[in-house]
Amino acid sequence: MGWSVTIGRFFGTYVRIHITFLIFLAWIGFSAYQRAGIEAAKQSVVFIVAIFACVVLHEFGHILTARRYGVRSTQVTLLPIGGVADLDKMPEKPYQELLIALAGPLVNLVIAAILLVIAGAMDGEILRRIDDPSIGLVEKLAATNVFLAVFNMVPAFPMDGGRVLRAALSMWLGKQRATMIAAQIGQAFAFALGFLGLFGNPILIFIAFFVYFAAAAEAQNSFVQQATHEVRVVDVMETRVVSISRGATVGEAVDILLATSRESFPVLNASGGLIGLLSRDDIVEAVRDGDTNAPVAPFAHKEIATITPEQTLDAALEQLVDAPAVGVVAADGRLLGLVTKQSVAEVMLIKAARPDWQFSRGGRVG
Ligand SMILES: [Zn+2]
Protein backbone atom coordinates (compact mmCIF):
# COMPACT_ATOMS: atom_id res chain seq x y z
CA MET A 1 0.00 0.00 0.00
CA GLY A 2 1.37 3.46 -0.91
CA TRP A 3 1.78 6.36 1.52
CA SER A 4 3.22 4.13 4.25
CA VAL A 5 6.33 4.31 6.43
CA THR A 6 8.19 1.18 7.54
CA ILE A 7 9.01 1.24 11.25
CA GLY A 8 10.57 -2.18 11.75
CA ARG A 9 10.54 -5.91 11.16
CA PHE A 10 9.20 -8.40 13.74
CA PHE A 11 8.93 -12.20 13.37
CA GLY A 12 9.93 -11.74 9.72
CA THR A 13 7.07 -9.31 8.99
CA TYR A 14 7.53 -5.62 8.12
CA VAL A 15 5.40 -3.24 10.20
CA ARG A 16 4.31 -0.17 8.25
CA ILE A 17 2.20 2.86 9.24
CA HIS A 18 -0.15 4.42 6.72
CA ILE A 19 0.03 8.20 6.62
CA THR A 20 -3.70 8.44 7.47
CA PHE A 21 -3.06 6.54 10.72
CA LEU A 22 -0.58 9.28 11.69
CA ILE A 23 -3.16 11.94 10.78
CA PHE A 24 -5.71 10.11 12.92
CA LEU A 25 -3.27 10.06 15.87
CA ALA A 26 -2.44 13.74 15.38
CA TRP A 27 -6.15 14.54 15.41
CA ILE A 28 -6.57 12.75 18.75
CA GLY A 29 -3.56 14.59 20.23
CA PHE A 30 -4.78 17.93 18.96
CA SER A 31 -8.29 17.56 20.30
CA ALA A 32 -6.87 16.63 23.73
CA TYR A 33 -4.74 19.78 23.62
CA GLN A 34 -7.75 21.92 22.74
CA ARG A 35 -9.86 20.35 25.44
CA ALA A 36 -7.41 20.29 28.34
CA GLY A 37 -4.04 21.79 27.44
CA ILE A 38 -0.49 20.52 26.96
CA GLU A 39 -0.46 18.05 29.85
CA ALA A 40 -3.50 16.24 28.46
CA ALA A 41 -1.91 16.27 25.02
CA LYS A 42 1.21 14.54 26.45
CA GLN A 43 -0.95 11.90 28.13
CA SER A 44 -2.74 11.36 24.85
CA VAL A 45 0.57 10.77 23.10
CA VAL A 46 1.48 8.06 25.64
CA PHE A 47 -2.00 6.62 25.22
CA ILE A 48 -1.65 6.69 21.43
CA VAL A 49 1.64 4.81 21.53
CA ALA A 50 0.00 2.21 23.78
CA ILE A 51 -2.98 1.79 21.41
CA PHE A 52 -0.54 1.52 18.54
CA ALA A 53 1.20 -1.36 20.34
CA CYS A 54 -2.17 -3.10 20.91
CA VAL A 55 -3.07 -2.79 17.22
CA VAL A 56 0.28 -4.33 16.31
CA LEU A 57 -0.36 -7.20 18.75
CA HIS A 58 -3.83 -7.64 17.20
CA GLU A 59 -2.24 -7.98 13.76
CA PHE A 60 0.32 -10.47 15.01
CA GLY A 61 -2.61 -12.48 16.35
CA HIS A 62 -3.71 -12.85 12.71
CA ILE A 63 -0.19 -13.31 11.35
CA LEU A 64 0.94 -16.00 13.79
CA THR A 65 -2.35 -17.91 13.45
CA ALA A 66 -2.05 -17.74 9.65
CA ARG A 67 1.49 -19.06 9.87
CA ARG A 68 0.15 -22.18 11.60
CA TYR A 69 -1.74 -22.92 8.37
CA GLY A 70 1.27 -22.25 6.15
CA VAL A 71 0.22 -18.72 5.13
CA ARG A 72 3.07 -16.20 5.31
CA SER A 73 2.73 -12.46 5.75
CA THR A 74 5.44 -10.12 4.51
CA GLN A 75 4.00 -6.86 5.86
CA VAL A 76 1.34 -5.32 8.05
CA THR A 77 0.05 -1.78 7.46
CA LEU A 78 -1.65 0.28 10.16
CA LEU A 79 -4.69 2.29 9.06
CA PRO A 80 -7.09 4.43 11.13
CA ILE A 81 -9.52 1.50 11.20
CA GLY A 82 -6.87 -0.88 12.50
CA GLY A 83 -4.19 -2.89 10.79
CA VAL A 84 -4.16 -4.79 7.53
CA ALA A 85 -1.86 -7.80 7.33
CA ASP A 86 -1.06 -8.74 3.73
CA LEU A 87 -1.33 -12.51 3.78
CA ASP A 88 0.37 -13.99 0.72
CA LYS A 89 -2.68 -16.13 -0.03
CA MET A 90 -5.97 -17.11 1.54
CA PRO A 91 -6.01 -20.33 3.53
CA GLU A 92 -7.67 -23.24 1.72
CA LYS A 93 -10.28 -24.14 4.34
CA PRO A 94 -13.00 -21.69 5.50
CA TYR A 95 -12.51 -22.70 9.15
CA GLN A 96 -8.84 -21.63 8.87
CA GLU A 97 -9.86 -18.19 7.59
CA LEU A 98 -12.40 -18.02 10.41
CA LEU A 99 -9.78 -18.73 13.09
CA ILE A 100 -7.25 -16.33 11.53
CA ALA A 101 -9.88 -13.55 11.48
CA LEU A 102 -10.99 -14.20 15.06
CA ALA A 103 -7.44 -14.29 16.44
CA GLY A 104 -6.99 -10.48 16.13
CA PRO A 105 -10.03 -9.32 18.14
CA LEU A 106 -9.33 -12.12 20.60
CA VAL A 107 -5.90 -10.60 21.30
CA ASN A 108 -7.60 -7.28 22.16
CA LEU A 109 -10.01 -9.01 24.53
CA VAL A 110 -7.13 -10.80 26.25
CA ILE A 111 -5.22 -7.50 26.59
CA ALA A 112 -8.37 -5.82 27.98
CA ALA A 113 -8.88 -8.63 30.51
CA ILE A 114 -5.26 -8.40 31.67
CA LEU A 115 -5.45 -4.60 31.98
CA LEU A 116 -8.73 -4.77 33.91
CA VAL A 117 -7.20 -7.23 36.35
CA ILE A 118 -4.25 -4.88 36.76
CA ALA A 119 -6.60 -1.96 37.33
CA GLY A 120 -8.62 -4.07 39.76
CA ALA A 121 -11.84 -2.93 38.19
CA MET A 122 -13.73 -5.76 36.57
CA ASP A 123 -16.96 -3.82 36.00
CA GLY A 124 -18.55 -2.36 32.89
CA GLU A 125 -18.53 1.19 34.28
CA ILE A 126 -15.34 2.09 32.41
CA LEU A 127 -16.85 1.56 28.97
CA ARG A 128 -19.38 4.33 29.62
CA ARG A 129 -16.64 6.74 30.69
CA ILE A 130 -14.26 6.24 27.76
CA ASP A 131 -14.37 9.98 26.95
CA ASP A 132 -13.89 11.04 30.58
CA PRO A 133 -10.34 12.49 30.89
CA SER A 134 -10.25 11.75 34.64
CA ILE A 135 -10.13 7.93 34.34
CA GLY A 136 -6.72 6.29 34.43
CA LEU A 137 -4.63 5.30 31.45
CA VAL A 138 -4.88 1.57 32.17
CA GLU A 139 -8.69 1.63 32.35
CA LYS A 140 -8.89 3.76 29.24
CA LEU A 141 -6.60 1.38 27.39
CA ALA A 142 -8.70 -1.59 28.52
CA ALA A 143 -11.86 0.10 27.26
CA THR A 144 -10.18 0.93 23.95
CA ASN A 145 -9.19 -2.69 23.49
CA VAL A 146 -12.80 -3.76 24.03
CA PHE A 147 -13.81 -1.13 21.46
CA LEU A 148 -11.18 -2.39 19.00
CA ALA A 149 -12.43 -5.96 19.37
CA VAL A 150 -16.07 -4.93 18.85
CA PHE A 151 -15.37 -2.54 15.98
CA ASN A 152 -13.27 -5.13 14.16
CA MET A 153 -16.10 -7.63 14.41
CA VAL A 154 -18.43 -5.40 12.36
CA PRO A 155 -19.31 -7.68 9.41
CA ALA A 156 -17.73 -5.54 6.68
CA PHE A 157 -14.51 -5.88 4.71
CA PRO A 158 -11.75 -5.16 5.49
CA MET A 159 -12.67 -5.58 9.14
CA ASP A 160 -12.20 -8.99 10.68
CA GLY A 161 -15.97 -9.38 11.01
CA GLY A 162 -16.19 -9.26 7.20
CA ARG A 163 -13.77 -12.17 6.98
CA VAL A 164 -15.61 -14.09 9.66
CA LEU A 165 -18.84 -13.55 7.70
CA ARG A 166 -17.19 -14.60 4.43
CA ALA A 167 -15.67 -17.71 6.00
CA ALA A 168 -19.00 -18.68 7.60
CA LEU A 169 -20.92 -18.14 4.33
CA SER A 170 -18.24 -20.08 2.41
CA MET A 171 -19.12 -23.22 4.30
CA TRP A 172 -22.56 -23.23 2.62
CA LEU A 173 -22.27 -21.08 -0.51
CA GLY A 174 -18.74 -21.60 -1.77
CA LYS A 175 -15.97 -19.02 -1.60
CA GLN A 176 -16.88 -16.88 -4.56
CA ARG A 177 -20.55 -16.23 -3.72
CA ALA A 178 -19.63 -15.79 -0.06
CA THR A 179 -17.09 -13.10 -0.98
CA MET A 180 -19.57 -11.29 -3.24
CA ILE A 181 -22.21 -11.21 -0.50
CA ALA A 182 -19.74 -10.17 2.21
CA ALA A 183 -18.33 -7.44 -0.07
CA GLN A 184 -21.83 -6.09 -0.78
CA ILE A 185 -22.62 -5.98 2.93
CA GLY A 186 -19.29 -4.20 3.48
CA GLN A 187 -20.11 -1.58 0.86
CA ALA A 188 -23.62 -1.04 2.24
CA PHE A 189 -22.03 -0.54 5.66
CA ALA A 190 -19.56 1.96 4.14
CA PHE A 191 -22.45 3.97 2.67
CA ALA A 192 -24.27 4.01 6.01
CA LEU A 193 -21.10 5.09 7.77
CA GLY A 194 -20.35 7.82 5.24
CA PHE A 195 -23.95 9.05 5.58
CA LEU A 196 -23.63 9.23 9.38
CA GLY A 197 -20.32 11.04 8.92
CA LEU A 198 -22.05 13.79 6.94
CA PHE A 199 -23.98 14.74 10.06
CA GLY A 200 -21.06 15.02 12.42
CA ASN A 201 -17.82 13.15 12.59
CA PRO A 202 -15.70 13.64 9.45
CA ILE A 203 -13.52 10.71 10.55
CA LEU A 204 -16.46 8.44 9.71
CA ILE A 205 -16.47 9.60 6.07
CA PHE A 206 -12.79 8.84 6.00
CA ILE A 207 -13.31 5.31 7.36
CA ALA A 208 -16.21 4.80 4.94
CA PHE A 209 -13.89 5.40 1.99
CA PHE A 210 -11.44 2.79 3.25
CA VAL A 211 -14.15 0.23 3.87
CA TYR A 212 -15.75 0.83 0.47
CA PHE A 213 -12.58 0.41 -1.56
CA ALA A 214 -11.27 -2.46 0.53
CA ALA A 215 -14.54 -4.34 -0.03
CA ALA A 216 -14.34 -3.74 -3.78
CA ALA A 217 -10.68 -4.84 -3.90
CA GLU A 218 -11.44 -7.97 -1.90
CA ALA A 219 -14.22 -8.99 -4.28
CA GLN A 220 -11.93 -8.38 -7.27
CA ASN A 221 -9.01 -10.33 -5.77
CA SER A 222 -11.21 -13.23 -4.86
CA PHE A 223 -12.61 -13.37 -8.40
CA VAL A 224 -9.12 -13.42 -9.90
CA GLN A 225 -7.90 -16.02 -7.40
CA GLN A 226 -10.86 -18.28 -7.95
CA ALA A 227 -10.70 -17.99 -11.75
CA THR A 228 -6.96 -18.62 -11.91
CA HIS A 229 -7.21 -21.57 -9.55
CA GLU A 230 -9.55 -23.32 -11.98
CA VAL A 231 -7.38 -23.24 -15.11
CA ARG A 232 -4.23 -25.15 -15.92
CA VAL A 233 -1.17 -23.32 -17.22
CA VAL A 234 -0.98 -25.61 -20.30
CA ASP A 235 -4.41 -24.41 -21.41
CA VAL A 236 -3.79 -20.68 -21.23
CA MET A 237 -0.05 -20.02 -21.59
CA GLU A 238 1.34 -18.02 -24.51
CA THR A 239 2.64 -20.53 -27.02
CA ARG A 240 3.54 -18.19 -29.87
CA VAL A 241 6.62 -17.08 -28.05
CA VAL A 242 9.32 -15.14 -29.83
CA SER A 243 12.61 -16.47 -28.53
CA ILE A 244 16.18 -15.33 -28.95
CA SER A 245 18.95 -17.89 -29.40
CA ARG A 246 21.87 -17.98 -26.99
CA GLY A 247 24.34 -16.90 -29.69
CA ALA A 248 22.32 -13.91 -30.99
CA THR A 249 23.97 -10.50 -31.18
CA VAL A 250 22.65 -7.20 -29.83
CA GLY A 251 21.83 -6.15 -33.40
CA GLU A 252 19.78 -9.30 -34.01
CA ALA A 253 17.91 -8.80 -30.73
CA VAL A 254 17.00 -5.24 -31.77
CA ASP A 255 15.66 -6.56 -35.11
CA ILE A 256 13.48 -9.07 -33.23
CA LEU A 257 12.29 -6.40 -30.78
CA LEU A 258 11.24 -4.10 -33.64
CA ALA A 259 9.56 -6.88 -35.64
CA THR A 260 7.16 -7.78 -32.81
CA SER A 261 5.08 -5.97 -30.18
CA ARG A 262 6.40 -8.20 -27.39
CA GLU A 263 8.17 -7.05 -24.27
CA SER A 264 9.69 -10.31 -22.99
CA PHE A 265 11.93 -12.66 -24.96
CA PRO A 266 13.11 -16.01 -23.59
CA VAL A 267 16.73 -16.85 -24.41
CA LEU A 268 17.11 -20.50 -25.45
CA ASN A 269 20.07 -22.82 -25.84
CA ALA A 270 20.49 -25.13 -28.84
CA SER A 271 18.17 -27.80 -27.41
CA GLY A 272 15.36 -25.34 -26.64
CA GLY A 273 16.17 -25.06 -22.92
CA LEU A 274 15.38 -21.79 -21.16
CA ILE A 275 18.52 -20.02 -19.98
CA GLY A 276 17.27 -16.47 -19.39
CA LEU A 277 14.76 -13.76 -20.15
CA LEU A 278 15.39 -10.52 -22.05
CA SER A 279 12.99 -7.65 -21.50
CA ARG A 280 12.63 -4.69 -23.82
CA ASP A 281 14.56 -2.63 -21.25
CA ASP A 282 17.37 -5.21 -21.19
CA ILE A 283 17.75 -4.94 -24.97
CA VAL A 284 17.79 -1.13 -24.78
CA GLU A 285 20.44 -1.45 -22.05
CA ALA A 286 22.47 -3.73 -24.33
CA VAL A 287 22.26 -1.15 -27.13
CA ARG A 288 23.49 1.57 -24.78
CA ASP A 289 26.37 -0.51 -23.38
CA GLY A 290 27.57 -2.98 -25.96
CA ASP A 291 28.51 -2.92 -29.59
CA THR A 292 26.06 -4.24 -32.17
CA ASN A 293 27.99 -7.43 -32.79
CA ALA A 294 28.44 -8.36 -29.14
CA PRO A 295 26.35 -11.28 -27.82
CA VAL A 296 23.10 -10.17 -26.18
CA ALA A 297 22.79 -13.17 -23.79
CA PRO A 298 24.84 -11.58 -20.96
CA PHE A 299 22.14 -8.88 -20.65
CA ALA A 300 19.41 -11.44 -19.96
CA HIS A 301 18.01 -12.14 -16.50
CA LYS A 302 19.28 -15.59 -15.52
CA GLU A 303 17.01 -16.19 -12.56
CA ILE A 304 13.66 -16.69 -14.23
CA ALA A 305 10.72 -18.24 -12.44
CA THR A 306 9.47 -21.44 -14.03
CA ILE A 307 6.42 -23.66 -13.59
CA THR A 308 5.24 -26.91 -15.12
CA PRO A 309 2.36 -27.00 -17.62
CA GLU A 310 0.14 -29.03 -15.26
CA GLN A 311 0.20 -26.42 -12.48
CA THR A 312 -2.74 -24.03 -12.10
CA LEU A 313 -2.54 -20.41 -13.15
CA ASP A 314 -2.64 -19.04 -9.60
CA ALA A 315 0.83 -20.56 -9.05
CA ALA A 316 2.10 -18.43 -11.94
CA LEU A 317 0.27 -15.39 -10.57
CA GLU A 318 2.30 -15.48 -7.35
CA GLN A 319 5.54 -15.40 -9.35
CA LEU A 320 4.32 -12.59 -11.64
CA VAL A 321 4.25 -10.17 -8.71
CA ASP A 322 7.93 -9.45 -9.20
CA ALA A 323 8.72 -10.88 -12.64
CA PRO A 324 7.55 -9.81 -16.12
CA ALA A 325 7.01 -13.41 -17.23
CA VAL A 326 7.07 -16.98 -15.95
CA GLY A 327 8.57 -19.70 -18.12
CA VAL A 328 6.59 -22.89 -18.63
CA VAL A 329 9.07 -25.76 -18.97
CA ALA A 330 8.76 -29.48 -19.74
CA ALA A 331 10.40 -32.13 -17.55
CA ASP A 332 13.45 -32.13 -19.87
CA GLY A 333 13.91 -28.35 -19.46
CA ARG A 334 12.51 -27.41 -22.87
CA LEU A 335 10.52 -24.15 -22.95
CA LEU A 336 6.85 -24.79 -23.82
CA GLY A 337 5.48 -21.29 -23.38
CA LEU A 338 5.28 -18.20 -21.20
CA VAL A 339 2.76 -16.82 -18.73
CA THR A 340 2.67 -13.00 -18.52
CA LYS A 341 0.35 -10.51 -16.82
CA GLN A 342 -1.28 -10.14 -20.19
CA SER A 343 -2.06 -13.87 -20.37
CA VAL A 344 -3.77 -13.62 -16.99
CA ALA A 345 -5.68 -10.50 -18.11
CA GLU A 346 -6.91 -12.34 -21.21
CA VAL A 347 -8.10 -15.31 -19.15
CA MET A 348 -10.02 -12.82 -16.96
CA LEU A 349 -11.63 -11.18 -20.01
CA ILE A 350 -12.83 -14.55 -21.31
CA LYS A 351 -14.06 -15.56 -17.84
CA ALA A 352 -15.91 -12.26 -17.41
CA ALA A 353 -17.59 -12.68 -20.81
CA ARG A 354 -18.40 -16.38 -20.33
CA PRO A 355 -18.04 -17.64 -16.72
CA ASP A 356 -18.59 -21.25 -17.88
CA TRP A 357 -15.90 -21.12 -20.59
CA GLN A 358 -13.72 -24.25 -20.54
CA PHE A 359 -10.05 -23.64 -21.21
CA SER A 360 -8.92 -26.93 -22.71
CA ARG A 361 -5.98 -26.90 -25.03
CA GLY A 362 -4.45 -29.72 -23.00
CA GLY A 363 -2.09 -32.04 -24.82
CA ARG A 364 -2.08 -30.11 -28.07
CA VAL A 365 1.07 -28.18 -27.33
CA GLY A 366 4.56 -29.18 -26.32
ZN1 LIG B 1 -7.83 -7.70 12.56
Automatic annotation (TrEMBL):
InterPro entries: CBS_dom, CBS_dom_sf, Peptidase_M50, UCP006404_Pept_M50_CBS. Its cofactor is Zn(2+). This is Zinc metalloprotease. GO terms for biological process: proteolysis. Residues 237-296 form the CBS domain. PANTHER family: MEMBRANE-ASSOCIATED ZINC METALLOPROTEASE M50B, STAGE IV SPORULATION PROTEIN FB. Belongs to the peptidase M50B family. It comes from the Bacteria. It is found in: Cell membrane. GO terms for molecular function: metal ion binding; metallopeptidase activity. SUPFAM superfamilies: CBS-domain pair (SSF54631). GO terms for cellular component: plasma membrane. The lineage of its organism: Bacteria, Pseudomonadati, Pseudomonadota, Alphaproteobacteria, Hyphomicrobiales. It is a multi-pass membrane protein.
